[in-house]
Predict the structure.
Amino acid sequence: MASVSEKLEAIKNQLPEEVTLVAVSKTKPPELIMDAYKAGQRIFGENKAQELADKSEILPKDIEWHMIGHLQRNKVKYIAPFVSLIHGVDSLRLLRAINKEGVKNERVIPCLLQIHIASEETKFGLDEDELYQLFESEDYRGFQNIRIRGLMGMATFTDDENKVSSEFRKLKTIFDNVKQKYFKGDELFSILSMGMSGDYHIALNEGSNMVRIGSAVFGERNYP
Ligand SMILES: *Cc1c(COP(=O)(O)O)cnc(C)c1O
């Protein structure tokens, strides 16, 4: 079986230069993360705040940690001092909690807003109208300690590639609309996080510039 570093290399060879790889290390032990680190990987994604904080304590300090999962408001404090990017922000209430922790930690916390593009009910995220309501809200405009860097989404889990393509295409369209409407000329609003192990090729075709890949690097997980 191929090692972590071999699998990482094979994936990186398929990614255009401008695409950022987030190696999703959730549930995986620090030793495996170190294998990827030694192969040059510096950006890792976790979906539980406590696990992310614990791993950050014992692993090298130049790792950039991304929170990719659903984040509860009362857990923001565990990661606020150091997290590089929070991918799954899907409510004004969560954004408010992140802003508050940003103030406490005297830093601006980079965030992506999660958009609901899949047909499954279980996937979190805002729809397009809710997204615009958020940008128009007075609260949002007052947040000084968050920075919206772009959007994130997850496609339906299906073998139907046309469906996955069209969901990613929809997210790219929303991204372009939002950029035009609210972030024109703002170079920091630039990240479109879409694509995982099973669908990143499709996501890249549809304009993704950040992929979140777990099992294809670290092997299958026993639980999601
Ligand atoms: C687990 C997870 C991934 C990675 O999934 P793989 O299929 O293992 O690549 C990507 N994004 C999110 C939000 C996840 O929770």
Notes: Strands lie at 20-24, 43-46, 64-67, 85-89, 109-116, 146-154, 191-193, 210-213. DSSP finds ten helices and eight strands in the chain. Residues 24, 26, 47, 68-69, 154, 196-198, 212-216 surround pyridoxal-5'-phosphate (CB under 6 Å).
